[in-house]
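ok so I'm stuck.
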Amino acid sequence: MQDISPHASDRSGTVPAIAAATVIVMRSGPDGGPPQLLLAERSEGLAFAGGATVFPGGRVEPGDGALAQQLVAHARSGAALDDMAARIAAVRETLEETGLALALRSTDRTITQADAEAAREALASANDFAAVLARMGWTLDLTRLIPWARWRPTGPHVRVFDARFYLADLGTGAVGVSADRSENRHLFWASAAEALAMADRGDIRVIFPTRRNLERLAQFDSAAACTAHAHATPVTLIEPYVVRDDGVDWLTIPDGLGYPVLRQRLDEVARG
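replied:
not stuck anymore, here's the structure
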């Protein structure tokens, strides 16, 4: 079997990149408006993106890779193990951070909010996602996660994350979520345009990848349009780089990947 490691070398080969997964959770906007996105304000004292507003997610744990290997072996699927491990991490982290049972199916009934909370508590106690799934009688429905992007910074960072982004459309707006009060202090729903306006006012702080993805999402007036765009846009690894222009350093990403804004002044970039 292929070994799935939670670390991978970055382009320079000097900093180990931590495999991670992020979920852009969408629900129907009120009165037929643009979709709302689930956003998490991280606790201030965290080493990475402390105090910043981000999409739910986190690192890929060894157990996610082990579960991915089991699923691929059982299904005899040719799916990439690292992608499957990232999807599993995305589901697990979303449950841990928000209490939302995303991309999960019950064998005998509809998953309720009370079920999700019970699974969340069990996961916090046991830290064994496979065991929690078995206990709850749940299976993973990883096709619910649509690949959106993959970001990995380079340079002299203390932590480098190789983060895969996925879309998940909940459809209905009747969804209960709650912050875990450890990694995240607050959860809220907002359209991409609303979140960008909040960042411009200084109400929230967003790091470079989050802002670029909010700008990309703000181009679409429905979850269906976002999903169609995701299907039509191949995922290419994005490694931001610095370009000096007229004496100003700009943190820059390549064109042609769906992002309407390609750069930001380096001295104005919020760090992770």
